[in-house]
Fold each of these.
Amino acid sequence: MKQRSKSVPHLILSLALLPVVLLSACAGAGDWSFSGLPGDYEVVRFSAHVIRLLERTSDIGGTTVVDSFVSELWWNDDYILAKRKPEDTAPESSVSYYIVEVATKEVFGPYTKEEFDARVPELDIPFSHEGWISVRDLPQDSS
Amino acid sequence: MKKKFLSGFLSIILGLHIILCPAFTFASAPPEIIPNSNNSFVFPSLKDGVSTLSRMSVPQLNSYISSVAQRDMAVAASTSSSNDTAATIIDVRLALYAAGLIAQKVGFPCAGRILEHSALNIDYTESNGAIARAIQNSPSYEAWKSTSNDSITFEIASDGLDLFLALHWVSVNVTGSPSSSRIRIIDTFNFDPKFFKQPSIINAINDIGWLSQKVYLLSEIEIQIDIVS
């Protein structure tokens, strides 16, 4: 009896949610984009293993600026810095670095870490490696 | 924990069939599909289940989902006959497969196809098939054709719920000349533990999909759709 009384609210909740859920448990639900970057740039998750930095060119999509797998970002109003791995499980030693200049839309890179560390001060970017943000930790209230 | 989850999930599946098809009877079933015993189906393998379910009508598919759920609930409540067994992962995956078949028949042809394949852990590939036609008829695709974008996003408002839930953000690869080209659309069906910037119901979908992946009821599959001129 106790088991049945617990199952009834569960079933009601299931009924309320489920028609849409089961009919639509599909690829689209897992994709997201983070548009809290300057300019028309967005980070887009196509799958757990494919995350790219895109330039959004219209309401219906965009072009890839830094290909997958974009693992970490830093940005201010003028620049977006990105770390890219060949794939999400690749070691840190495989990382290449990119610099996107927002105003001109120029993309510099791929750089090694040494090249990147030399280039950043040349462009007068107020960046330190402690400032990297993992794409997994992008703030939810940004858009 | 897994057993409780399966039972809960069966409640969900039962809810689906109640909402979608409130009136059905076995009296309308084609004579060649016969329940195993006690008016229920127990398939020894996914292959056997797919072979039979793929020939069923919507009422029969709903009856199958109901039979799996009811059998498991009876076992859980200790009111079943001694021959009944609790639902296995294969049973629930077949129920999800049946839900995908139903979805295709009740207005969600794209989402239904993908759900069907995910339940069976089979990548989805087509060339100029049903999803390709849906894409070609969508406003977002029409708008994309005049751009040089390598990505498209399908949205509910413009492209409809079915296409949105089947694809959403996709990569696009174009090969060949404009007059004889192949447009390849690539996506991955899976769910992510972190998710934002969507209506709350979509977040709920993602959460349940993530949980389904965790217990292997649904699988991450690759989607490849070719539009060939």
Amino acid sequence: MPKCHFSDVKISGIVTCVPPLEKCIDDELELFGGNVKQLERLKKTIGLSKRRVVDAQTTAADLCEKAARHLIKEAGVDLQQIDAMICVTQTPDYLQPCNAAVIHGRLGLSKNCAALDVNLGCSGYVYGHWLAHSLVASGGCERILLLAGDTISRLVNAKDRSVAPLFGDGGSATLIERTVGAPSAYFSLQTDGGGYDKLIVPAGGSRHPKSTETAEVLEDESGNFRSPENLFMDGAEIFNFSITEEPKSVKELLEYAEIDADAVDHFVFHQANRYILSNIAKRLKLDLAKVPMQTVERYGNQSSASIPTAICGELATAIADRPSTRLLLSGFGVGLSWASALVEVGDLAVCELIDYTA
Amino acid sequence: MELKTFIKNFEEAVEDVEVGSLSGDSVYRSLEYWDSLAVLTVIAMVDAEYDLRLKAKELKQMQTLSELHALLKSKQSI
């Protein structure tokens, strides 16, 4: 995908919704076989601590719907005037229909509304923005609701140290509208399908349907337990991928936009974990004060919802204080897929993190 | 890439290892705190200090710090 830019498109509001149930790595010493030092190193080096997770009844669609309702109310949006809804998720309610159709019905949107899902994770929020921006810029839509959310905690095996203490859940809603004179937004999007098995839930799709065999939990060489229906992550390879591709992607987008890194107010990366983010920031020689990275220790790695959570949770005041804030958004992960966007936000109708209530 | 400097960098990258405690003959994979987290911090050190990509698989194939050093030197000359 060549890089591209759009003008006259405005981000009008962002809301993120997190489940109220908080788990903390300090309470999970038995997962580390009583190894206090290992747990302390994970806290100190990787930056793991607390995470918010859903109960067995709550889905990404629920979190996204709650975020969307709050956004619609605060921004005073007329439901009849939403032309399209894009749902980014890898944990939909059903294999079919898509979450976008389900939530469209629950919100009572107009029949003259395009609704579709995007099956992407950590890069998905940026991909969703790219789609929404291009639909508005092409003249096809005036107003788009972009929902991005996942419940990855429901895919991990509780006895898998490589993923269980890391992932949290969240759902977000972002309003994107045509506004003549809105500043340009720049995008770059990339994929390396050769790494599709580095972050994967092997069973449950059409290739390996669920069976008694795929439900069997096995121990791996590191003493972690998971079944093929659980999420698997090759942590070292994902780390290598992130520190190789992310700095490159960010640099290239800034060059394309002809904007100096100093002119960017905040670099909002997918909140994978503090260690990956500080390594990426170091390679780009970024001022760490411009790089929010506390989202993981508060909420966990939330896949597609992590960038909006970082914006609403760590930057809401900074954005509200200025007429305009330049953000570089960058997501990377499952696919392997990565994408960066340079956008300006200001005068947001709402920029808020809320707790989920059923 | 000097072996001595590499060993020092390695010791600093892996937590709970005292600087000066390892030599070229040290079998790093038998260190008490050699785990997936140590793998990450060594990969990050190699990337930051030497601008080389080290794979987790390669760390599993080598035994001693001298062997690992030789592998990185061979990558550097490519």
